[in-house]
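Per reviewer request, we include the raw input and output of the structure prediction for the construct analysed in the revised manuscript.
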Amino acid sequence: MVRDVCRHTGFTLVELLVVIAIVTLLISILTPSLERAGELTRAGHCAANLHQIHTGFQQYIAQFDGRYPYGVPRPAATMNHPHYVTWRDGDRRGGGKPPQQQFWDLGYIRTRGTWTCPTDRTPENYNWWDYDVHPDFPAGVGSSYMMSEQALFGVTWWYHHIFRDSQVLEPSTFGLAADGWMCPNGWRWATTDPEWEWSDGINHTRLDWTHDGTINMLYGDGHVAREVQYGISYRVRTNPVHRNPLHTGKP
């Protein structure tokens, strides 16, 4: 007598639901790790950009007798705050050339990607000195980095002479450049610090992305470090000739 045997050849609905649940759980566990790994890669690319930008600074300093890229087309002896002086036709206020544009024009850095952090979705929003003044970059070139306003302009304004590399105190603690969407950093690195409370109640943050709550900081001695945003204004000096990180006035 032949007995028919019903063989189980497929998954039941319950088994399929269990498999889907397990796969979904694994995806939810792995996705944050993959995102962090991707951001780590992007942060590393960004740090490499800042190293290259430091090379641009070194080339400028060597070519111009120790001077930092000044960017203000006035004699130092007649120095005034850039927001209140018109230098170029058509400018409401401000003017001059940011380091990015000078390095490009001088041929130090001609790779467009060097100026763009992979995490920055809007590098074309970059501005110089004032919110309505855009640099004269070639088409398609933006920037994801901002520089110490004290080094580019502040020391010269206070002392009425061009700032030179030899004046920098403790280069390893002086923040020369960092992630940000506007070239001058706003006198201090509080513009990257969510913890900072501005007295006028206005949001002066000049950074619209982070590397998992950190930013890349280029120091005066050329090393780059990822710094936690919170409290950065109390840790990193933005004035190259003063040891107090919060100091923004005349040394």
